[in-house]
Structure formats: structure tokens, C-alpha cells
Amino acid sequence: MKTAIYLDYNATTPVDKGVLDAMLPYFSEKFGNASSRTHSFGWIAEDAVKIARQQVADLINCLEQEVVFTSGSTEGINLAIKGVWENYQSKGKHIITVKTEHKAVLDTCKALEKKGATITYLNVDREGVIDLQELKNALTPQTILVAIMYANNETGVIQPIKEIANVVHTNNSMLFCDATQVVGKINIDVEDEHIDIMCLSAHKFYGPKGIGALYIRRKDPRVTLFPQIDGGGHERGLRSGTLNVTGIVGLGKACEIAKLDMWDDSARISKLRTRLEQLLCELPNTFINGSTKNRLFNTTNICFQGKRSETMIKKIPNIAVAMGSACTSAVAEPSHVLKAMGLSDEDSYCSIRFSLGKYTTEAEIKEVIEKIKAVANI
Ligand code: PLP
Questions:
Q1: pLDDT value for 329
Q2: In what order do the strands lie in the sheet with 94-98?
């Protein structure tokens, strides 16, 4: 049987062989607890964690002391937003975010609204980009945090983070950036872009699932977060719990590989993505959702007007793509991202996200174009 074609790399990625090889010894012979200070098993694990922390820091240009390991971005987002909320309430209770954020951000903000936070949800334009003037107008002396994602998981649209950081800092507020879809794909420099807090997740860039990191700025300003998990005081008291050494080693290796391969991968993948969307957009009433100017090189979200994506996807079971709607209940709901960009519910139901990765081949893209065109023409 022919194996399926995977074009859902924004959902998750396979573990790179080099990452797997780096991890394997830490399941068995090097199984020590990184907090065991009295023997070599612990020291070996601790050394591995130290190397991985540096590998993460090297990828995003920060200090190793600014990296806290988490179980992934959902946890990082919770620690960042709730951690700021609990520590900075004497300054204010206002947080700003965007309507197109990931549910992990939106639901965390909703939870804080119940505790007395005032949340402003910024709009995006038809391209999926925020308006800097709207952000400026929303900031108040009580704004403690602005939470804006680097690039959107559904459309790949990139926000102008450096300009956003300038505006936010002029107001003496902090910027938290969900960079889950970006780290490992394009170069991020937290110093240059002046991001204060940023989350990343290994499984989005060929590392294992269940491990990620939160970058927390130490200087200019020094950010302090209120911990969300109490326990043994691991990760300088910010995230208690025995360290997932195997996962951490995998995350570190994934960062090292991404730093080396990122440019070559992006050039190759973006060519395939362009071919895919150009040929698919030859179909009548077919268009790309979101900005094509500032977008992740691997992602395209296409609306096939009048053709329900659910029906199309069912006809091509060997092609793994994502719908522009979410099955959060028995009935699929239109995507909150596409809706915020002004798409009708019907157009959202007719949209498909294709996300390519480093194992995507030319032959696969050719086959996907043929099959999608065939089902769209029925
Ligand atoms: N933020 C974005 C933009 C994402 O794409 C995802 C994963 O889908 C998350 C957060 C959650 O990440 P994790 O799976 O590491 O919890």
C-alpha cells in the first residue's frame, strides 16, 4: 500500500534521526535524575541538560539562564501569561492580545478575565495582520502584558514583532510572543527583536512531543514570573518537577540541527509551497487566505470557494492536511482565525491548510496538486 503524504507539519513533525540518536542513551544507560547531586548518574544527566539549555539559547540568541524547560507551548503560555498576571497586578490588570491567537492564549486570557483581568482582543485586517495604531490606542498605564504570536499556525501570517515590541516598550509594558510556529523555521533573535517572554515547542521542529521552553528576559527589563507548579523548586523555582532529560536532550539537538539547516530547508520548501499554491489557485474561485508578503515559507491556507474542505479531504484519505475549521464539538466550527480576518463561515468551511516540511518531496507536491484538482473539479 502506498504510504500517505504528510502536509500537516504545523500540527506536528516527525522526530529527526539525529534527534532520536541523541535521545536514545538517556532512556536507559544514562537514566539519571538531573537533580541527583551525589553521584555520576545525576551529574551526567545534569551535564546533558546544561548542553541542551545552551543549544536552545544559541538558536534564539539569549543567555542559558533565560531558558526554562516546560512540557511545551501550552504550558509555556500559561506560565507566561498567568505568571505575569500574578506578579504585576500592583501595576495594573490590563492585558492585550489578538483575536487570531492560538486557543492556549485565548483560553488563558479567558480564565484570567474570570479573575478580574481586563483583556483587549485586537482585530486583524483581511491579511491577518494587526494595526499598530489600534495597539497604540489600546495601551494604557495599567497594561502589564501584550501577548502576540509571531506567526499564525493556520495561515502562517507573520506579525511585525519588532515594531510591536517598540510600541509596547514605549508604554513600559512587556511583550510575550508565542513563537511556536517560528522557532526552528526562521531565525529569531530575542535581543534584536526585544521580546521579553517567548515560548517554543520541540515537536514543531523535528524534536519530540511534550517538551518545550520558555525564554524569560533577565535584563532590560528583568521579568519575574509567578510559578504555576509548586514542588521541588526545579528550574530556579519557576517550574517544579523532575526534568524530562530525554526530551530536553531532544529539544537541544533539534535546535542545533535547525540552526544549521534552516536556510537550506526554507529555500527548498518555499519553492514547493509556491508551486503548490500557484497551481491550485488556477482553479476557479480559489484564493490564498492571509498575507502573501509576510508569511511562513512552509504554510499556505487556501479557500476553494463552494467546495467544502471536509468533503474534499474525505475523498483524498492518503493526503494529510488540516481543515480551516475545528472539530471542537460534534459540529465543525469555522476557524476563529479566518473569521477574524473577515472570511464568511462558508469560506472558512471551504478552506484547507497545507503545511510542508523538510521531508516533503517534489513528487509528493505533484501528486497533491493532481489529486486536489481532481476532487475540486467534481
Ligand atoms: N501555539 C501555537 C501557535 C501552536 O501552533 C501550538 C500547537 O499547535 C501551540 C501554541 C501549543 O503547543 P504545544 O503543542 O507545545 O502545547
A1: 47
A2: 67-70, 212-216, 197-201, 174-178, 143-147, 94-98, 118-122
Q: What cell was used for 189?
A: 533573535
C-alpha torsion angle, residues 112, 114, 118, 120 (rounded to 10): 70
- Active-site residues, by number, are 327
78 lines ligand 1 (CB under 6 A): no
- CB 149 less than 6 A from any atom of ligand 1: yes
Q: Are 302 and 352 in contact (CB under 8 A)?
A: yes
Instruction: Enumerate the H helices of 217-286 as residue ranges.
Output: 245-280
pLDDT at position 307, please? 95
Ligand 1 centroid – CA 2 distance (Å): 30
The pLDDT value given to residue 99: 98
- Among protein residues, the one with the nearest Cα to ligand 1's atom 6 is 180
* Cβ 13 under 6 angstroms from ligand 1: no
Q: Which domains does the chain carry?
A: 5-13+263-376 (3.90.1150.10), 17-256 (3.40.640.10)
Ligand 1 pocket test, candidate residues 73, 161, 182, most atoms within 8 A of CB: 73
Give me the residues of the chain with pLDDT under 70, please. 1-2, 324-331, 378
Backbone CA torsion sign across 58, 60, 66, 69? negative
Separation of CA 73 and ligand 1 centre (Å): 5
- Any ligand 1 atom below 6 A from CB of 299: no
CB 289 within 8 A of CB 341: yes
